[in-house]
Inverse folding.
């Protein structure tokens, strides 16, 4: 953190988080466009947008051949994450989708020790149990939306897996270069999934499904999703990390489900209003998510040490 953030920087950081919370709403607004198609065209437009940004900034796209394939494969994970993310919002609603996504920290606490081979911390086990209690409350009161919640939790797992794997590249390459290759990988994965779903979707008989945007409004929402929610939010987010500590950034990003649920209620009204049990369960999950960085950044007592003998 090279410089102290101004008040406008705090507003900008929260604005970026609001934008990320808006993505599930855009997925809902794009219906009946299939989730795989949403991700396909989102990543296509994002790759073009990132390519323009890279060209303007004069950044070199060179990475080692091995890392290029790894970045593309990592992008495939985020592509699948997005497909499940938008599918969850449609199987249930935006609020349930974002509640499921709030379990990302739980998945990270489970996956990180396995992938990075570090010891599991007691606080992670405790907060994981708290998250499970919150999920139990949601399941109890919103049983008809269980499918959407499970899909959202799987999406959260892939998001956490992506973040853990991605951390290995951030020290070696520019963030925009990493993002360009990963968006390209997500594009390839989304295209493959789009082909499979388009040729095997048996539900198309019962409802109208689009696999290509057909209206100007759909293209407008896709442009907002790709250029504003992906390219703009990502590039601004990277610049803000120079001013904020990682702790402050993570703590603020944890507000994404809160902003998203509030926006969903304002935009969609009664279809997004849930039972008191749902909001209580979501509050329990968010409390655990916020408690984790607070615990890790608590002041620690320094044990007095005997002076070193001369």
């Amino acid at each position: 953190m090279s410089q102290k953030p101004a008040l406008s920087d705090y507003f900008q950081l929260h604005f970026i988080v609001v934008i990320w919370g808006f993505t599930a709403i855009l997925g809902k607004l794009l219906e009946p466009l299939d989730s795989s198609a949403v991700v396909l065209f989102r990543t296509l437009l994002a790759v073009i947008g990132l390519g323009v940004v890279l060209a303007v900034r004069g950044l070199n796209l060179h990475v080692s051949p091995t890392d290029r394939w790894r970045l593309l494969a990592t992008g495939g994970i985020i592509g699948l994450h997005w497909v499940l993310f938008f599918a969850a919002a449609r199987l249930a609603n935006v609020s349930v989708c974002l509640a499921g996504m709030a379990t990302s920290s739980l998945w990270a606490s489970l996956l990180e020790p396995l992938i990075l081979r570090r010891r599991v911390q007691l606080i992670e086990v405790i907060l994981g149990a708290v998250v499970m209690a919150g999920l139990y409350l949601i399941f109890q009161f919103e049983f008809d939306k269980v499918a959407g919640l499970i899909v959202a939790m799987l999406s959260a797992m892939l998001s956490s897996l992506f973040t853990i794997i991605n951390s290995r590249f951030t020290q070696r390459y520019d963030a925009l270069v990493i993002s360009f290759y990963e968006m390209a990988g997500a594009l390839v994965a989304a295209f493959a999934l789009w082909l499979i779903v388009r040729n095997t979707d048996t539900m198309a008989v019962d409802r109208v499904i689009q696999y290509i945007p057909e209206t100007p409004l759909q293209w407008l929402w896709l442009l907002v999703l790709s250029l504003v929610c992906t390219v703009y939010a990502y590039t601004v987010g990277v610049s803000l990390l120079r001013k904020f500590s990682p702790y402050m950034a993570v703590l603020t990003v944890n507000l994404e489900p809160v902003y998203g649920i509030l926006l969903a209620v304002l935009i969609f009204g009664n279809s997004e209003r849930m039972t008191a049990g749902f909001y209580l369960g979501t509050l329990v999950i968010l409390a655990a998510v916020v408690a984790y960085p607070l615990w890790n950044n608590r002041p620690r007592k320094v044990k007095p040490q005997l002076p070193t003998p001369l």
Summary: The chain has one domain: 7-294. The two ends are 38 Å apart (CA to CA). Residues 65-91 form the longest helix (27 residues).
